[in-house]
Design a protein that fits this description.
Layout (H helix, E strand, L loop, with lengths): L1 E11 L5 E11 L3 E5 L6 H9 L9 E4 L2 E2 L5 H4 L1 E4 L11 H11 L4 H14 L15 H13 L5 E5 L7 H18 L3 E5 L2 H7 L2 E6 L2 E6 L1 H6 L4 H6 L4 E8 L2 E4 L2 E4 L12 E7 L4 E3 L7 E10 L4 E6 L6 E5 L10 E6 L5 E4 L2
Parallel strand pairs: 3-8, 3-9, 6-7, 7-8
Antiparallel strand pairs: 1-2, 1-4, 4-5, 9-10, 11-12, 11-14, 12-13, 14-20, 15-19, 16-17, 16-19, 17-18
Helix pairs in contact: 3-4, 3-5, 4-5
The protein binds adenosine-5'-diphosphate (ADP) and magnesium ion.
Adenosine-5'-diphosphate binds next to α1.
């Protein structure tokens, strides 16, 4: 069922900043919902409204299951929170930090010790139980923060860019562990990030936000394969954009035309000026007789599992194409390219 529902929620701050336009959003029990968007788009404000740290403008309502919690304080809502900065109690041990929420809930000592031990084991920090948190690394602190937030069995776990401060390798590792943990425990979670890869990896559904509004809600596959707006396409990694003229379902590109009636998204290729968005896999290097056009190599980066080639001479902007890492591609060389119609997303150009 629905764990959390926000209805007609908008947020205007005291200084007049319109952080969020009115929106509806519901989160299913046990689901991990990711809020994804650039800095300043209102992600943290939504999280703080769910926590009870901010209240929606008049007319908005927040329900936890059947309960109207719109005016409830954070203490009444029983939410768990994890932030980018650890916000642990520095003068307490790891175990004391994790036990804190259970003490507040007046859980008896025996059960408390048991649950703290379970949480520490689950987060692989049981050997750190008696350490003070100021003696821990960033990754260890974030494990403690997660254990502390989950131990009191919150109705919803709210995570605001919890991995942003960690180095890349640790970020991927912890994200995998968090993913497994949320599913194992069936926790309802809302996870805020500006990192599209993290959003894809963690979300059952992703809410893409732009300037205080929801641009699209969908599964990672839906967001990736069928972005509804150019903003979503661009933000979730379609780095290439070509402006083309469409006539009878075919894109006219210089001397050649390409059948784009099979483009990925639902927007039919309507005649007129259009924008084609695609990722590095929407274009291929190919033999001359298969080519839609030729282009000049501007940059080459070896990425291990692939060779990433930037080519110019197709439309106005340079585009990126990935190819076999063992192929030899030289700067300034002329290459032959073809578009992969199934991997294109089309929008009418304004
Ligand atoms: P995000 O988390 O996506 O980066 P925020 O929710 O923090 O975005 O902020 C959304 C907008 O609201 C931003 O323009 C921000 O400057 C503004 N904002 C956030 N908190 C306040 C506040 N307390 N007073 C005024 N403006 C605020
Ligand atoms: Mg934020």
């Amino acid at each position: 069922g629905t764990a959390i529902a926000l209805t007609n929620c908008a947020k205007t701050f005291a200084d007049g900043t319109r952080a969020l336009m009115p929106f509806d959003l519901s989160i299913t029990a046990g689901e991990t919902l990711v809020l994804l968007g650039p800095s300043g788009c209102g992600k943290t404000t939504i999280l703080r409204m769910i926590a009870g740290l901010e209240f929606p403008d008049a007319g908005g309502a927040i329900h936890f299951g059947e309960d109207d919690v719109t005016r409830h304080s954070i203490e009444q809502r029983r939410v768990g929170m994890v932030f980018q900065s650890y916000a642990l109690f520095p003068n307490m041990t790891v175990a004391e930090n994790v036990a804190y929420g259970l003490k507040v809930q007046k859980v008896g000592k025996a059960e408390r010790d048991q649950r703290v031990r379970e949480m520490l084991e689950m987060m692989h920090i049981d050997m750190l139980a008696d350490r003070r948190v100021d003696q821990l690394s960033g990754g260890q602190r974030q494990r403690v923060a997660l254990a502390r937030a989950i131990a009191p069995r919150p109705r919803v776990l709210l995570l605001d860019e919890p991995l942003t401060a960690l180095d890349a390798k640790l970020r991927v590792r912890l994200r995998t562990e968090i993913n497994a943990l949320l599913r194992k425990l069936g926790i309802t979670a809302i996870y805020v990030t500006h990192d599209q890869e993290e959003a894809m990896a963690l979300g059952d559904r992703i809410v893409v936000m732009q300037k205080g509004e929801i641009a699209q809600i969908g599964t990672p596959q839906e967001i990736y394969r069928a972005p509804k707006t150019p903003f979503v396409a661009d933000f979730v990694g379609a780095s290439n954009c070509l402006k083309v003229d469409i006539e009878n379902g075919r894109a006219l590109l210089g001397r050649v035309d390409v059948d784009v009636s099979r483009a990925w998204n639902a927007n039919p290729a309507t005649d007129g000026l259009s924008e084609i968005y695609f990722r590095a896999d929407g274009l291929m290097l190919c033999a001359p007789h298969d080519a839609h056009f030729t282009a000049t190599v501007e940059a080459v980066s070896y990425l291990g599992e692939k060779l990433r080639v930037t080519v110019a001479g197709i439309g106005n902007d340079a585009v990126i194409v990935d190819t076999d890492p063992d192929s030899v591609v030289r700067l300034g060389e002329t290459v032959h390219c073809r578009l992969v119609p199934e991997k294109l997303t089309m929008f009418a150009a304004n």
